[in-house]
Specification:
Helix content is 42%, strand content 16%. A hairpin with a 2-residue loop joins strand 9 (230-232) and strand 10 (235-237). The chain folds into two domains: 29-125, 3-Layer(aba) Sandwich (Rossmann fold); 138-260, 3-Layer(aba) Sandwich (Rossmann fold). By secondary structure, the protein is of the alpha/beta class. The termini are far apart. The structure holds nicotinamide-adenine-dinucleotide.
Length: 280
């Protein structure tokens, strides 16, 4: 069994991004990424802080807009429009989830798709669906990159994607399909989940339910990717029962240290892509 070390690969990617950022700076170009954080959700604050720190580390200039929970949809859209028009800003990230009174879809669509480094805009989702991506969601992009690093070929493989969310499940299924895998997407209404997961050469879980994927649900020698992040008794855990599943898997991601660091590395990568797109 091999551990897919996302932390190590993310470090390597960040180093190469740092070099590229330095080269851009010599040409007078400073990559800029804007974060918008609404309210005081502690997990969202942690994520934005981690992403801001990652930007600092590679030399990407970051702007933080913190807005109160009660902010109106219009006020939020006005800030996005201002950032869309700001030539110093190459990427705009609105940290999700947003408070209930704000329509998430409207906010995502307000972002200029050329600055949509999260890859959530319908234009970017549509491009991915057509097999011609511009910006793709960072988590599935990081998973593809991680598998590539370990020479895991997805072409012709049976993949089961547990979780059909817009951030991971759906774009992951599209990326894998584009790469030649046969993908089955499972979700909360899927019946006999185990029957399906047991057939997977590559099993990916993005649900957020600790212990969902147990050893009896996994085929011998499968590649197991755990996207889930939950807190149990103060510890960060994934969806997979790592201790037992790792005995059966050929490759497996740890939580933490697997998919999470790759997500942040891909955000930096997408920001750099946005700069290149603008400068070309
Ligand atoms: P989401 O709410 O958009 O999607 C969850 C999906 O899980 C839904 O499709 C739902 O139908 C499915 N589901 C729920 N219960 C299920 C069950 N019992 N069996 C099968 N399917 C079930 O969530 P999301 O934004 O995709 O996030 C999922 C998890 O991944 C969360 O724990 C989140 O914190 C984590 N996450 C981690 C990273 C990372 O970088 N590691 C990035 C994004 C999300």
């Amino acid at each position: 069994m091999v551990i897919l070390d996302g932390k190590k690969l993310a470090q390597k990617i960040r180093l190469s991004i740092k070099e590229e950022v330095n080269q851009l700076k010599q040409r007078g170009i400073i990559p800029g990424l804007a974060f918008i954080l609404v309210g005081d959700n502690p997990a969202s604050q942690v994520y934005v802080n981690m992403k801001t720190k990652a930007c600092e580390e590679v030399g990407i200039y970051s702007i933080n807009h913190r807005m109160p929970r009660e902010v109106s949809e219009k006020e939020l859209i006005d800030v996005i429009k201002m950032l869309n028009d700001n030539p110093m800003v190459h990427g705009i990230l609105v940290q999700l989830p947003l408070p209930k009174h704000i329509n998430e879809e409207k906010i995502i669509e307000a972002i200029d798709y050329r600055k949509d480094v999260d890859g959530f805009h319908p234009y970017n989702m549509g491009r991915l669906a057509r097999g011609n991506p511009l910006f793709s969601s960072c988590t599935p992009l990081g998973i593809m990159r991680l598998m590539e690093e370990y020479s895991i070929d997805v072409k012709g493989k049976d993949v089961v994607m547990v979780g059909a969310g817009n951030i991971t499940g759906k774009p992951m299924a599209l990326m894998l399909t584009n790469a030649g895998a046969t993908v089955q997407i499972c979700h909360i209404y899927t019946q006999n989940l185990k029957e399906k997961t047991k057939r997977a050469d590559i099993l990916i879980s993005a649900v957020g339910k600790p212990g969902l994927i147990t050893e009896d649900m996994v085929k011998e020698g499968a590649v197991v990717i755990d996207v889930g992040i939950s807190r149990v008794e103060g510890k960060v855990v994934g969806d997979v029962d790592f201790e037992n599943v790792s005995k059966k898997a050929s490759y497996i991601t740890p939580v933490p240290g697997g998919v999470g660091p790759m997500t942040i590395a891909m955000l930096l990568y997408n920001t750099l892509q946005s700069v290149k797109l603008k400068e070309q």
